[in-house]
Specification:
elongated, 8 helices, 13% strand, 3-stranded parallel sheet, alpha/beta, 5-stranded mixed sheet
Length: 315
Amino acid sequence: MSHSLSPLNQPRNTAVSPAAGRRLGAPQLTNPALDYTYDGSFEGLLSVLFQIYDRKAAPNSIQLVGAVQGGLFVQPVEVDTNETAAARVWDGLLRYMDKDARTRLFHVFLSEQPDRELLVFRYADLAMRAGRDISEHYADDNVRRVQRLAQQMYREKHRMEAFVRFEKTQDGLFHATIDPDFDVLPLIAPHFTKRYADQRWLIFDKRRRYGLYYDLTRTDVVEFESAAPQRSTSVSATVLDEREPLFKLLWQSYFDHVNIPERKNMKLHRRHMPLRYWRYLSEKQPREQPFRPIQNKRPVQPGGPALGAAPAAGE
């Protein structure tokens, strides 16, 4: 997986003319195909793409180091991550596609599909040989898959931004544990950095065992040494701020009182808020106190005063 907050982990000068270099196209891959391995980072994958065209050998497979699967006589080529080569590839892609199309390749990588590396290669190779943007070339299966995966990543990103709920710890850290279907932490980092710039927070992906930590100045990737599985998405009650249960109770009470039972439509509700996200939401957790309607309002009696009206003289 990639633990970069953005491709190459820092902004680069990508002011490449859209028409620059289009006549060059991609080198012909005339040598026998090879099996490549890399370290699992996005920069590592870009380094593999550089080696493919430098060696002029198409990939049979692109796999993680230590997880190579192949025949008895397969001798994979291990490619070390080279940030300079990765930057050349990343910047060079703008000669054949716009920034949005290039970003979709990063999203495909974060989707963690089994063949994501070959899909990125095939899309980039097709664009370089076409010499133009191919994002609307839906007759090609690779283009359709890239578009579909990018849409799925977009939906997961926005749902995480909407449904993540923080719990405050005793030392003032706001913590949230998530378990998304895709590796979306690099995509949601800008949103939470901007929205919660005045407080320290940690968002931890329990499936991928890494998180984002914001210390009031910058957002960094953090990893944890423990490999023990974490079943709950909540923090232990022993480290929570003593007021946290009250905040949860107040939010549940607010939700119950603004809810309109007569307009309940669970089918539509689940469509907009899938069941797998409910574990993050306080309003979806079991109630510690039963719901009681507000008692400071009286029903309107026929011929009686309206709600909130001043009592008549003598009452």
